[in-house]
From TrEMBL:
It comes from Hypocryptadius cinnamomeus. Residues 177-228 form the Fibronectin type-III domain. Belongs to the type I cytokine receptor family. Type 3 subfamily. Residues 10-60 form the Ig-like domain. GO terms for cellular component: ciliary neurotrophic factor receptor complex; CNTFR-CLCF1 complex; external side of plasma membrane. One of its GO terms (molecular function) is interleukin-11 binding. Gene3D superfamilies: Immunoglobulins. The keyword Cell membrane applies. This is Ciliary neurotrophic factor receptor subunit alpha. It is a lipid-anchor; GPI-anchor. Keywords: Cell membrane, Disulfide bond, Glycoprotein, GPI-anchor, Immunoglobulin domain, Lipoprotein, Membrane, Receptor, Repeat, Signal. The keyword RNA-binding does not apply.
Length: 228
């Protein structure tokens, strides 16, 4: 009999030696190392105030015969805190993507479920292979005044949590940075630089949706920026 047992950091954990009687003579090991009898209550193993270091494989053997009677993997962790969710359109008007992460690790496996609603319509958020914590939504109607509602739920063996974003289509449009930025000296003019750049390659239609560029610069010896 082998399975996984999930417990919260700081919990008191009791492990039963399979179907063995409470007063049976048993020996417990953790990751192959004998556990002191002071942690036993009859044949039960009692772990007080567990921490992350106590995760591992626990085995129970019958008496002096060392016949394996029970085995479990203890995974110590925490319930998930409210996830951090961000949605952004960097390729308008094609669609937008949402990405997420947890503010603190849980040390055990987590599963994420995301739902996207546009008005009353459920939309598909297609998961990206890389990065794995991102999915994208294709716009079905441009210049829509109906808000999007995105809800992300995270679940693990010790609990669940969620967060929700509600936004207008235009509020999340944010192009990627310009590409191929080059600064060159201007011949015979030591106080001038020529700066050139290209549209971000992710921006699909710069003619219909032109981008404005904002440039700032300063000599390294000064703290104040100049703006163009």
């Amino acid at each position: 009999d082998s399975h996984i047992q999930y417990e919260r950091v700081g919990a008191d954990v009791t492990m039963k030696c399979g179907s063995m009687d409470w007063d049976a003579a048993v020996t417990w090991t953790a990751n192959g190392t004998d556990i002191d009898e002071s942690h036993l209550n009859g044949s039960y193993l009692i772990l007080k105030n567990v921490d992350l270091s106590q995760s591992g494989q626990y085995s129970c053997y019958e008496g002096s015969s060392w016949h394996l009677k029970y085995q479990t993997t203890l995974r110590v962790g925490t319930p998930p805190k409210e996830p951090v969710l961000m949605c952004r359109s960097n390729n308008y008007p094609k669609g937008f993507y949402c990405s997420w992460h947890l503010p603190t690790p849980t040390y055990i496996p987590n599963s994420f479920n995301i739902s996207v609603i546009h008005g009353t319509k459920d939309m598909v958020c297609e998961k990206d292979a890389v990065p794995k914590n991102r999915c994208h939504i294709r716009y079905i109607q441009l210049f829509s005044t109906v808000k999007y509602k995105v809800t992300l739920t995270v679940t693990n063996a010790l609990g669940k949590n969620f967060t929700t974003l509600t936004f207008d289509e235009f509020a999340i449009v944010k192009p990627d940075p310009p590409e191929s930025v080059v600064a060159k000296p201007v011949p015979n003019n030591p106080r001038r630089l020529e700066v050139s750049w290209q549209n971000p390659s992710s921006w699909p239609d710069p003619e219909s949706f032109p981008l404005k560029f904002f440039l700032r610069y300063r000599p390294l010896i000064l703290d104040q920026w100049q703006h163009v």
